[in-house]
UniProtKB/TrEMBL annotation:
<keyword id="KW-0732">Signal</keyword>
<feature type="signal peptide">
    <location>
        <begin position="1"/>
        <end position="23"/>
    </location>
</feature>
<feature type="domain" description="Peptidase M24">
    <location>
        <begin position="193"/>
        <end position="402"/>
    </location>
</feature>
<dbReference type="Pfam" id="PF00557">
    <property type="entry name" value="Peptidase_M24"/>
</dbReference>
<dbReference type="InterPro" id="IPR036005">
    <property type="entry name" value="Creatinase/aminopeptidase-like"/>
</dbReference>
<protein>
    <recommendedName>
        <fullName>Peptidase M24 domain-containing protein</fullName>
    </recommendedName>
</protein>
<dbReference type="InterPro" id="IPR000994">
    <property type="entry name" value="Pept_M24"/>
</dbReference>
Length: 444
């Protein structure tokens, strides 16, 4: 079937770096490695990351890091130190990371107990007596989830087992958990990019006539189409896809809108996938052509361009070592100079969709974020650059938030933050179905 040249050209431009091919309307996705291979790869990354813990402890002047957890009541850090084939911790699992110095040199690191008889406590005590650490970190921070994952019951159990003498030596060092969880390795980027490719492909498919029939398909239908599609691609998620029809009023936080998708609608999605221990977080926009229209109205293109300009400013200004609040304030100042109104609320991403580390604004804290905004940006972290630009659309007499989000990394070679895949510079366009194009209609 011959498609219009402009349609083809538009898709070629949009997809030139993509790994999928579309043959007569069929999209084929590049698979990730088999689960078995993924487990091997992930355990390799894990080993590398764990081997850095002794140096991290020394950096923060700590001799040991103690975690204790029970099945279904794990420390937050558990999810970043467990092996790929492990899920919940078994029974009571106690882990003692140490600096590999002196007495404990040659012992496993961490030293690990899996126990349901109480036998682990005297053994832990014995280890502590012989190695005599003066500062032992435990995860009891009040503000940072990644440094505050020790359950109160476990804290009481530790206190009971070790007594005052050892509890006096316990310290709260939030940067330990934050820096450990945020550490990305160079060889993860390749797979992270593949995940981004899959995310973009799914949006190409979802925001097309294959899935959307204007006047019939609802935003909810589309959200659930993404959920079901993930299953067929062997992916899971941390973030239910939220599809919205963008209007002046619609700025839903944790939900999409409830609308039947109509011609002329500006659509938006906020969602992510989970695979290989990594997460994505993306926001893109799409436009449903009206009858007789062959292209997106210029005013909408300009809105996206403005949001793209905010991304440029953000990546340009953001540097490791700055606090999240410093980045935020400099970005806002530059936006003001350029006459751009909008908001930034970027965050680290990696082991978690909302990962540990400095945040750069929150939707409800647009200018300054206490605690999490005062942390410094680390170069070994992926950042999700999340923002919107206000743009007035004369045809609608409405000011709309142009909301986009892409995941970025620090490229040491060029000394710049870059998007892992790229960024949306063209809206997806939902057109009339072509006769012989297979449709994957959402069943209402
Ligand atoms: C596209 O998909 C349809 C339906 O699954 C199938 O019948 C057709 O052969 C496919 N076309 C190509 C070129 O792969
Ligand atoms: C999903 O997993 C199945 C079963 O292992 C496999 O046959 C299929 O190719 C996978 N699909 C993708 C897109 O990875
Ligand atoms: C992960 O597996 C290795 C090798 O089997 C084992 O030594 C280690 O204790 C496991 N890690 C955890 C946190 O259970
Ligand atoms: C610490 O000791 C363990 C066990 O001997 C070893 O496998 C590991 O590489 C050491 N780590 C560091 C950072 O020296
Ligand atoms: C545009 O909207 C503003 C406020 O929402 C309203 O006051 C004005 O009358 C509208 N203009 C037109 C042409 O509808």
């Amino acid at each position: 079937m011959v498609k219009g040249w402009s349609w083809l050209l538009c898709n070629l431009l949009l997809l030139s770096t993509s790994v999928y091919v579309e043959v007569e309307g069929n999209i084929s996705y590049k698979p990730l490695p088999s689960l078995r291979e993924q487990a091997q790869i992930r355990d390799g990354w894990l080993k590398d990351r764990i081997s850095r813990i002794p140096a991290l402890l020394r950096k923060h002047g700590v001799d040991a890091w103690l975690m204790s957890q029970r099945e279904h009541a794990e420390d937050t850090i558990w999810w970043s130190i467990k092996n790929a084939t492990d899920y919940d911790a078994h029974r009571r699992t106690i882990l003692l990371f140490h600096t590999n110095d002196s007495v404990l040199e040659g012992k496993p690191n961490p030293i690990k107990w899996v126990d349901n008889t109480g036998q682990a406590w005297p053994e832990l005590l014995h280890i502590l007596e012989s190695f005599n650490p003066s500062r032992i970190a435990i995860n009891v921070d009040q503000n940072t989830a990644f440094a505050g994952g020790l359950h109160v019951g476990e804290y009481d159990a530790i206190t009971h087992a070790l007594g005052h003498r050892w509890m006096q030596r316990m310290v709260n060092v939030p940067l330990l958990g934050i820096e450990y969880v945020t550490t990305r390795l160079d060889n993860q980027l390749h797979y992270y990019r593949d995940m981004q490719d899959i995310v973009w492909m799914m949006m190409e498919e979802g925001f097309s006539h294959r899935v959307i029939t204007p006047g019939v398909t609802t935003t909810e239908d589309l959200s659930w189409w993404f959920r079901e599609k993930m299953l067929t691609l062997n992916l899971s998620t941390w973030n239910h896809p939220r599809v919205s029809v963008l209007t002046e009023e619609s700025f839903p936080g944790w939900t999409g809108t409830e609308d039947v998708i109509q011609k002329g609608d500006l659509l938006h999605i906020d969602w992510g996938i989970t695979a290989m221990g990594m997460n994505t977080d993306t926001q893109h926009m799409a436009y449903v052509l009206r009858d007789g229209e062959s292209d997106v109205p210029d005013s909408l293109k300009q809105g996206l361009k403005k949001a793209n300009r905010m991304q440029d400013i953000h990546l340009e200004i953001m540097r490791a070592g700055m606090t999240g609040n410093e980045v935020l304030q400099k970005c806002l100042a530059q936006m003001k100079l350029e006459g751009i109104e909008g908001q930034i609320y970027s965050h680290p991403i990696g082991d978690w969709g909302h990962d540990a580390g400095a945040v750069i604004g929150f939707t409800n804290l647009p200018k300054h974020v206490p605690v999490l905004g005062e942390l410094t940006i680390l170069p070994s972290t992926y950042y999700s650059i999340e923002l919107y630009a206000y743009h007035f659309i004369p045809e609608r007499n409405e000011t709309i938030r142009f909301r986009i989000e892409e995941n970025s990394y620090w490229d040491a070679e060029t000394e710049r933050w870059k998007f892992v895949k790229g960024r949306q510079e063209n809206l997806y366009v939902i057109r009339e179905p072509r006769d012989s194009t297979p449709l994957l209609n959402v069943q209402v």
